[in-house]
Write a structure and sequence with these properties.
With about 325 residues, this protein is an alpha/beta fold. The protein contains 13 helices and eight strands. About 55% of the residues lie in helices and about 10% in strands. It comes from Streptomyces beihaiensis.
């Protein structure tokens, strides 16, 4: 049961163009959520953990189909593709196409880590009219590369006669993972537990990504794709928990939260409006401060990516 405070928070998020996704701990948690009315009423998308049964993936898709039918930019179920195939774009494409065909639901997204093979697979999957969740994007530079691949894939889809409205793309940034890695590096550099630079890397990088997307959406390439029905790629914040909800609010974004994190975010109080638009200068200052302290954000991002890709191949 979702509290009244959480319902109010969800309404506030929706008013700002931000939607909540469920981030379940595993298949059992997803199964429990799908069987509850609160899942249908509270969440507008969900992540699926590795090893989730195909029948449960389909059930989650079916539960969110009304959301998807009303708004093609929401109601998605993100299913991981990777493991041993993550280093091979051909294998990624083949695995994703097989999984997509097995699920047989229009609102399923194939989740791919955005290393070089993942970006190559993204281009090809969009051309095959398969929606993609581009995951593990940790820097604005990588996000720019993903947007380039998105444009290339959508251009191929358009040339192939695909209805662009039916090919959604979500790009996620693991805010909490980057903050944790940077925090560990600050500790090794001697920064005190309460140092003001702690927990600033994730929000600052997220604001930089939001700014980059706004710049790209103002370009000519987007006007062409939009005229043919393309939906703007949604930015999804993951692993940030309740603390990130009020700090990262903006148009066409989403937060992946557990039910407990949603309730905790609601207890923290309401929102204070958009916290992403026009915040790039402050974000740049925060990242510059971290660099002056000796933190290499590129190295931190590479460490997170290597660690997470290693886990996905286990």
């Amino acid at each position: 049961m979702v509290s009244q405070e959480a319902v109010l928070l969800l309404k506030q998020l929706a008013a700002e163009g931000t939607v909540p996704w469920l981030s379940p701990d595993g298949a059992d948690a997803l199964d429990t959520a799908v069987g509850q009315r609160a899942f249908h009423d509270s969440f507008r998308g969900t992540l699926v953990t590795p090893g989730t049964p195909l029948s449960l993936i389909r059930a989650a898709c079916d539960a969110l189909l009304p959301v998807y039918a009303a708004d093609r930019g929401a109601g998605h179920v993100s299913v991981p593709v990777g493991g041993a195939t993550a280093r091979d774009p051909e294998a990624l494409v083949d695995a994703a196409r097989m999984l997509h065909a097995a699920v047989r639901r229009p609102n399923v997204l194939m989740r791919l880590p955005m290393s070089a093979p993942g970006r190559a697979a993204l281009v090809r999957l969009l051309a095959h009219a398969i929606g993609v969740h581009a995951s593990m994007v940790l820097t604005t530079e990588r996000y720019g590369q993903v947007l380039d691949a998105y444009v290339q894939g959508m251009e191929r889809a358009l040339a192939a006669g695909v209805r662009l409205h039916d090919v959604p793309v979500v790009v996620s940034f693991p805010v909490g993972l980057l903050d944790a890695e940077v925090g560990a590096r600050l500790t090794r550099l001697g920064a005190a537990p309460g140092h003001p630079a702690r927990a600033t890397a994730g929000p600052a990088m997220a604001r930089g990504m939001f700014r980059l997307r706004e710049q790209r959406l103002a370009g000519g390439w987007w006007r062409v794709l939009r005229a043919d029905g393309a939906l703007p790629p949604r930015l999804l914040w993951t692993t940030g928990g309740a603390a990130s909800v009020s700090r990262l609010v903006g148009w066409n974004t989403a937060h992946a939260l557990s039910p407990a994190a949603l309730e905790e975010a609601a207890r923290r109080g309401g929102l204070s409006g958009d916290t992403l638009l026009g915040e790039h200068d402050r974000a740049d200052s925060a990242l510059a401060a971290l660099r002056r302290l000796g933190v290499s954000l590129d190295e931190a991002a590479a460490a997170v990516e290597a660690r997470e890709l290693g886990r996905s191949r286990q």
